[in-house]
Structure formats: structure tokens, C-alpha cells
Amino acid sequence: MTVLEIRDAYRTHGDGEAAVHALRGVTLTVRPGEMVAVMGPSGSGKSTLLNLAGGLDRPTRGEVSVEGRQLRTLSKRQLAAMRRRSIGYVFQDLNLLPSLTAVENIALPLELDGTGVRPARRLALAALGEVGLAGLGTRFPDEMSGGQQQRVAIARALIGERRLVLADEPTGALDSQTGEAVLRLLRTRVDAGAAGVLVTHEARHAAWADRVVFLRDGVIVDASRPLGQAEQLLGSAS
Amino acid sequence: MSIRHGLLALLHRGPMHGYQLRTSFEESTGATWPLNIGQVYTTLSRLERDGMVRGLPDDGGQRPYEITEAGRTALSDWFATPLTRADRPRDELSIKLALAVTTPGVDVQAVVQAQRTATMQALQEYTRLKTREPEPADLAWRLVLDAMIFQSEAELRWLDHCEASLVRHNQPPPVRSVTPAPAAERRAVTS
Fold first, then answer.
1. Are B59 and B120 found together in one domain?
2. Which residue has the higher pLDDT, B170 or B186?
3. Residue A2 to residues A6, A34, A65, A147, A222, Cα–Cα distance (Å)
4. What integer pLDDT is reported at residue B136 of this predicted model?
5. pLDDT tens-digit map of A9-56
6. Across residues B137-165, what is the average pLDDT?
7. Residue A37 neighbours by CB under 8 Å, 6+ apart
8. Is residue B21 domain-shared with residue B70, that is, in the same domain?
């Protein structure tokens, strides 16, 4: 069972001479409990890939399925519902609403989806605890540090039963310790059974993933997974 | 770094015999530098010859060594002197890449990609070791591990840079290069 399946996806912007081929035949599957990092230079198609995975954009050709449902076959309403229920996003710019408190920001997708205010708040408080911010639920974004805001954004992405977590440079402007804490949170959720896709240009962060794929010019050029031979590596590091 | 200085640093804590030295050495470098017992005894006898350590009377079949005043001075000089680039081993990878771009018939992009995959795998393993460590992990071990993480990361950045330079150099860029570009186009991208 795969949570995300992208099959031979192409994405072209514009046409004729001016056509830009953002993705050219990308195939990628992510299983429950698996985190895949996507690396590549600017313009290699990383964000396009993530947008296709999250149903924010459609492929020009090829298929994208989330939890076995082909996104192409869903109506706009069904797609929006799936995005709210099954898919969690962490963006580089946090997209927190400044007029809502931390808990309100986190609960928003559930409330939009018809969950009652109380149960939504209860889940939001639990998610806030999960990211280590219990007690800061009534703060507004501008009353929190950058690292705390990022954690709120992550709590929003992890709330409820999200099976697919998509993160675009989630450690963006954070210092290395806070960035690591963010990765630890994503890793924990993935280890608990979600599927994760992490777009990053930092190899040190990509290394938290089970698999790293490299994109260049819209094509996956190589992929790596751990060897499970740490001791050998250490022995040869002299 | 030499094993000499490593052993002097350990003996600075107190007298030890060969096996204890080997174990402590591996513990404080997180097993990144395995020593065999022969290296330990050879180094100890040279240190003794140079007056840096002194053998003590046998202690149940094992002969402990202690550091001398000359040994302490050598150790403190070592800590006080920064390493120079020339002290470090030559980087085989950069030499390999430099030769790859100047040798006809070599698919340099394939060399870069294969290395990047291997280095990324190493980085994933180091990261896995680090995240597996309960907090707070042993500081010395964590710092050694971090050094390897940062080195792998630097190597990956350099490989990305090599790849970008190759692409600029060999326009139009082949996406999945199986056949190398003509030899005449291959000039060194690094100097």
C-alpha cells in the first residue's frame, strides 16, 4: 500500500517555443512510515513535484494518487476535502493567519472541514503539545519567535489523521538546533505511520529521510537510501 | 593527528597500559579510528625512546606507562598549534574528479552522481546514528559524529557545484548522460 504514487508525471507551463518543462516523466512512490527527501538545484522541479503531490497543481500528463485515489478523478470539492483531511503541508513561508491565535490557526483546517469547534480545538491543543508548545495556544503569531511559529505551522500540518505530510524547506530560516527539532517532529510522525515528502536544498536535512531523490531539469537523476552499514563507514573514516 | 599525541593525551589523565590505551582511544574518538594493539605498543616504545613516556613496574602481567614532563610539553604544544592544510591527507576525490574531466572517454557526470549517492548514504547513516543517540549523548562522540556530518555535507555541496560547472561547460546539458562529451570539450572545471 502506498500513500503517494506519482506515475510518469509531466508538467509543462506554457506551450510552443516558450514552453517550460518543469517535470519530465517523474515516478515516485512513498509508503506509510517512509520519508523521502527531494533535492536538486533551483528550477529543477522540486516545488512542482510537491504541488502535484498535494493536489495544488495537476500534471500535464501522468497520474498522481493519494491513498489509492487518483486526484485527476476527484471533483474540486472532493480534492479540497482530501487536502484538508489527508494531506498536511509545511510551507517555507508559514502562512499563519496573523489575526488568529496559535490554536485557532491549527484548528482552522478541521473547522473548515466541518469538525465542531470544540473537538477541533481539542485536537489542536494535542497537536500543539506534540510540537512542544503546550501552554502557548492563546498567543498570536507575532507574539512568538520564528521557531515557535514554525512549530505552530507544523502542528497545523500534523493535526488529526494526516497520512501524507509535505514539507517545502520547512527549516528555512531557522537556526540549526531549531531546524533539527522541526525535522525530529516530522520524523516522529512518519515513524508513526504517515508518509512524508521533504523538499530541501540542505543535504544535512535530507539525510533524515529514508530515501533521497535528486531532481535535475525535471528528471530524477539518482536516488539514495541508507546502506545500514554505519559501523563500516565509521571504521573507514580514518 | 598522530597516534602519538592521542596516546599522550590519554596518559595525561593517568598511567595506563596498552589495552587500556587502545580502548580509551577508541572510546574518545567514537570508534572512528580503530587502532590495533601492535600500533599502540610500537608508538609507546617510540614515545619511551623519545623520553615522552616512562614504563612503570609490571602490574599483574601488564606494564603501565606514565607521561613525562617532556611528554606534557609536547602535548600542550600540539593543542596550542592549529593544523595546517598541508598536515592533512590529500583529498582523493578532488584529484579523481580533476583527472576525470581531463581523461578522454570518462563520463564525469556519472562519476559525480555515483559519488553523490555514496556520500549521501554515508550522511544518512551518520544522521541515523546521531538521532538514535539518547540525549544527552557523550559529548566527544557527538562532536566527532558532527564533524563527519559536516564533512559529508561539504562534499555534497562541492559535488553539486561540480555538476553545475559541468552543465555550464558542456551546453546543451545532457539530462541522462550515457555517452561522454567529446574529449576536446573536456577541460578542467576546477583549477
1. no
2. B170
3. 10, 10, 9, 32, 21
4. 58
5. 999 988 888 888 999 999 999 999 999 999 988 888 998 999 999 998
6. 87
7. A197, A198, A199, A200, A205, A206, A207, A208, A209, A211, A212, A213
8. yes
Closest CA to B52 of B3, B4, B2, B1: B4
Say yes or no: B174 and B119 in one domain: yes
Residues of B in contact with A235 (CB under 8 A): 31-32, 34
Torsion sign across C-alpha atoms A46, A52, A56, A61: positive
Closest CB to B120: pick one of A224, A230, A233.
A224
Spatial distance between the Cα atoms of A210 and A216, rounded to a whole number of angstroms? 20
Residues 6 or more apart in contact with residue A115 via CB below 8 angstroms: A123
CB contact under 8 A, A233 and B125: yes
- Amino acid at the residue B163: E
E strands in A110-182: 164-168
CA angle, residues B140, B2, A235, in degrees to nearest 5 = 60
Q: Which amino acid is at A78?
A: Q
- E strand or H helix at A51: helix A46-53
Q: Smallest Cβ distance to B120: which of A212, A216, A221?
A: A212
Tell me, what amino acid is at A135? G
First to last CA, chain B: 28
Q: Name every chain B residue with its beta carbon within 8 A of the beta carbon of A177.
A: none
Residue among B127, B112, B120, B151 at smallest CA distance from A225: B120
Model confidence, pTM: 0.75
Question: How many structural domains are present in chain B?
Answer: 2
Cα–Cα nearest to B107, from A28, A206, A25, A221: A221
Q: What's the rounded Cα separation, in Å, for the pair A73 and B140? A: 55
Which amino acid is residue A218, in one-letter code? G
Q: CB–CB of B113 and A221 under 8 A?
A: yes
Task: Answer whether A66's CB lies under 8 Å from A82's CB.
Answer: yes
Q: Which three cell numbers stand for residue A227?
A: 546502506
- Which of A208, A224, A235 is nearest residue B34 as measured by Cβ atoms? A235
B144 and B180 part of one domain: yes
| Residue B53 lies in domain | 3-87
